[in-house]
Amino acid sequence: MQKFETARDAALALRPDRPLYAFRPSVLTADAGSFLSGFRGLTAYAVKTNGEDFVLDALARAGVSAFDVASPAEFAAARRASGSARLLYMHPVKAQSDVRLGLETYGIRSIAVDHEDEIAKVLRVVRAQDIPPGDITVFVRLATKGHAAYELSKKFGATPAHAVELLRRIDGIGFRAGLTFHVGSQVEDLAAYDRAVATAAWVRGRAGVPLAELDIGGGFPAPYGHDPKRPAPPPPDLGGLLARIQREIDDWGLGDLPLVAEPGRVIVARCLSVVVRVLLKKGQRLYINDGIWSSLSDSWTGKIMLPAQLIPDPARTRAKRNTAPRLAPFRVCGATCDSVDILTRPFWLPDTVATGDWIEIGHIGAYSLALRTHFNGFYPNDFVEVAAPFESTEGLEGVANVEPRAAMA
Ligand SMILES: *Cc1c(COP(=O)(O)O)cnc(C)c1O
């Protein structure tokens, strides 16, 4: 990757007509370090969030020694990054052949289930391969309730009573038993973790079998942009949230259990931005060369407001104006011909924005690269490495909606 101090420097040097990703390894290292130092248990990075080799390699170098994987391609990606990392296969619904591959070829010994048929898949491989069941930890995935940008418990998880039965079956076979939950992604209602921990305590008490580990999943919120017409919400406090979950775990008498967490978004969101170009400004609408079928689908499905800042094209002659630039909301239309390819949240940008300018969209490290499609023949895949964090980028005519107040003053 070519290296630049800021994404603006990269944009002005390369004048990209295709989306250009700006990777910030130092931000990734810092955010991984914050989680590793704030969490008492084992940090298993959720590979689906961003499974690029350069991300996994940087995480392994930053000290991440476990990965939450869900498919053969993710097993392989995590192994490429680290030959020794512990792989946890936490997808509750799996193909039989993938279970065999995971256990046989990748040495996976941690696996999640939410149904007895999934236990049977694991047992088949264990018997065929003569693996001691006591080497394997089978985690029962609990259904949970809460408010997150994404609710995942609608799809997966056993009810508490069912989880009790599953734990007894797992223990009866001779597997080690674990409990896990995943309360959603970009969790807004932090009490969702409290309720999940309480459910885990109830299930443990009822099941009456020894537990090897408690896995608290992912969902930890990352910082994004906000509507400048409203007071800025306080940024997510990861240390405070981890301390709160730990307190709940201790209060419910689960403090003796070794802990695992599966953070994704909170570790990688800030490490990547994308520099997009304004193909056309039509009134309050901006047509850009990216969109929901490329880097921005997470902001669309999760209704997430991304921070954005303008990089004006210095080569363009601008009409003289008597008024100072003002922040205005622009509707953002994507590159494809699809009529749903319009972002759900506006970008607040200086009203001087024009066709040919660039916009740097920050905090897109999570669920962007992994969700790119080839729809309409667009597939952005150009990368540069950038040293400065998105927030501290100086010298823009424009403003980020992370600090809109200062800009409007
Ligand atoms: C997606 C996922 C994660 C990561 O979630 P984030 O919200 O990105 O932290 C963790 N665990 C499981 C089981 C998941 O499906």
Task: Characterize the structure shown.
The protein is an alpha/beta fold and 409 residues long. The protein has two domains: 153 residues, Lyase, Ornithine Decarboxylase, Chain A, domain 1, CATH 2.40.37; 223 residues, Alpha-Beta Barrel (TIM Barrel). The chain has twelve helices and 19 strands. The strands form three sheets. Strands 1, 2, 13, 14, 15, 16, 17, 18 and 19 form a nine-stranded mixed beta sheet that branches. The structure holds pyridoxal-5'-phosphate. Pyridoxal-5'-phosphate (PLP) binds next to helix 10.
Entry keywords:
409 residues, alpha/beta, Lyase, Ornithine Decarboxylase, Chain A, domain 1, TIM Barrel, 8-stranded parallel β-barrel, 12 helices, elongated, binds pyridoxal-5'-phosphate, De-COase2_N
**Number of strand elements:** 19
Number of domains: 2
Total helical segments: 12
Name the overall outline.
elongated
The portion of residues assigned to helices is: 25-40%
The major β-sheet equals: 9 strands, mixed
The CATH superfamily of the largest domain turns out to be Alanine racemase
End-to-end C-alpha gap? 38 Å
Question: Which fold name fills CATH's third level, the topology of the largest domain?
Answer: TIM Barrel
Strand content: 15-25%
SS-based structural class? alpha/beta
Tell me, rounded to a whole number, the average pLDDT: 93
Q: Which hetero compounds are present in the coordinates?
A: pyridoxal-5'-phosphate
- Over all CA atoms, what is the radius of gyration? 23 Å
CATH architecture descriptor text of the largest domain: Alpha-Beta Barrel
The residue ranges in which pLDDT falls below 50 over 5 or more consecutive positions are 394-409
**What is the CATH C-level name of the largest domain?**
Alpha Beta
